[in-house]
Design brief:
repeat, mainly beta, glycoprotein, five-stranded mixed beta sheet, 1 helix, three-stranded antiparallel beta sheet, Chondroitin sulfate proteoglycan 4, Immunoglobulin-like, single chain, 3% helix, 2 domains, elongated, CSPG_rpt, FRAS1_ECM
């Protein structure tokens, strides 16, 4: 008997306070001899910053989203609804079965694209009369989504007791990630 096979288990990207379809392009478990309706997902850990929902025909039955099958995903009726504020990551864990074999402890990673860009910064300590080179680790976006996507920093408020320079040139009003 052939085991179930993970064809896709991609990271899901969702904008803050919105929803996204969990499609077969993101999550697909297959078996050559079993129909998608017989491949059952059992959610063991619910998302912490949102929830799963299955679109149903009747509005009064908001389907039990702890148990669903691959055909629900294939028909694009499975949703992740992002509901937590100021969060950048979420996940849920699940098992999959066809009634005979199991795939256990699978994880769906969810990256939340924040409405606003938040940065983690380090305190820069400079001895009087000296200079310090800024490092790429001195300014990092909180959201994994923005890592590697920032092209330029614009300086809105210059330091009161010093300046930001590029090399030995004059003060700069903007600089790139590559210049760090």
């Amino acid at each position: 008997w052939e085991p179930l096979r993970i064809r896709r288990n991609q990271t899901l990207y969702v904008e803050e306070s919105t929803s996204v379809i969990i499609s077969r392009d993101i999550l697909e478990i297959v078996h050559p001899n079993i129909s998608p309706g017989d491949i059952t997902y059992l959610v063991s850990t619910q998302p912490q910053h949102g929830y799963l929902e299955i679109q149903s025909i009747t509005s009064d039955d908001e389907y039990n989203s702890k148990v669903f099958d691959q055909s629900t995903i294939n028909s694009e009726k499975m949703f992740y609804i992002q509901a937590g504020v100021n969060q950048s990551l979420d996940y849920f864990t699940f098992d999959v079965t066809n009634g005979i074999t199991w795939l256990r402890d699978l994880v769906m990673r969810i990256v939340i694209i924040p409405e606003h860009l938040y940065m983690r910064t380090n305190t820069i300590v400079v001895e009087e009369g000296k200079s310090v080179k800024l490092q790429p680790t001195d300014m990092i976006p909180y959201s994994e989504y923005y890592v590697g996507k920032i092209l330029e920093y614009k300086i809105l408020d210059h330091p009161l007791h010093g300046s930001i320079k590029s090399g030995k040139s004059s003060k700069v009003n903007r600089f790139t990630q590559k210049q760090l």
